[in-house]
Amino acid sequence: MNIKRLLLILLLVIFGGLLVWKFAPLALRKPPVPQAAAPGPHVPPGAVLVNINMVGFDPETIDAKVGQPLKLAFFRPNANNCAREVVFPDLGIEKKLPPGETVVVEITPQKTGPLVFECGMKMLKGQLIVR
Ligand SMILES: [Cu+2]
Questions:
Q1: How far away, in angstroms, is 44 Cα from ligand 1 center?
Q2: How far is the CA of 130 from the centre of ligand 1 (A)?
Q3: Domains in the chain, start-ordered, CATH in brackets?
Q4: In the structure, what pLDDT confidence band is assigned to residue 104 with cuts at 50, 70 and 90?
Q5: How confident is the model at residue 38 (pLDDT cuts 50, 70, 90)?
Q6: For 7-35, how does the pLDDT look when each residue is reduced to its tens digit (9 = 90+)?
Q7: Ligand 1 centroid distance, CA of 54 (Å)
Q8: What does the DSSP assignment read for 5-48?
Q9: Residues in the 5 Å CB sphere of ion ligand 1
Q10: How far apart are the CA of 115 and the centre of ligand 1, in A?
Q11: Bond prior to 59 in cis (omega within 30° of 0)
Q12: Bridge partners of 96?
C-alpha cells in the first residue's frame, strides 16, 4: 500500500466521520413534541380583553362611556414583561396580574376624558377614553 492511497483512505475516513457527526443528530432527532396549548384568557361576557405583551397593553386605548360600567379582562400570558400589576391611579385601583390568569377589573367612569392605567412602575401605559 503506498502512501498516497493511505492518505486517501485517511481523508475518506475523516470526511465520512464529519458527515456522520454533522448529520446523524438530525436523523436521530425526534419530531418536536407539541406543547400543551397555553391556556387562553377567560373573558366574561361583555368584558373587553386587554392582553399584556412585551411592549405593553393591547389595546392601549379603549373607549368608555360616562356612568356605564365597563369590565376589563386583563390577561398576561407570561412573565415576559414588567406588568406584575395594573394600576388605575385616579381610581385607587391596583390589581395583581399573575401570569396565565385573567384579572377582571370593573369600573364605572364618572367623568369624561382620559383615564390612565399602567403597570406598577408606570412604564407600560394604557388609557380609557371616556366620553
Ligand atoms: Cu412596569
A1: 26
A2: 24
A3: 48-130 (2.60.40.420)
A4: very high
A5: low
A6: 665 565 656 555 456 666 556 666 666 55
A7: 10
A8: HHHHHHHHHHHHHHHHHHHHHHHHPPPPPPPPPPP---PPTTPE
A9: 82, 119, 121, 123
A10: 18
A11: yes
A12: 85
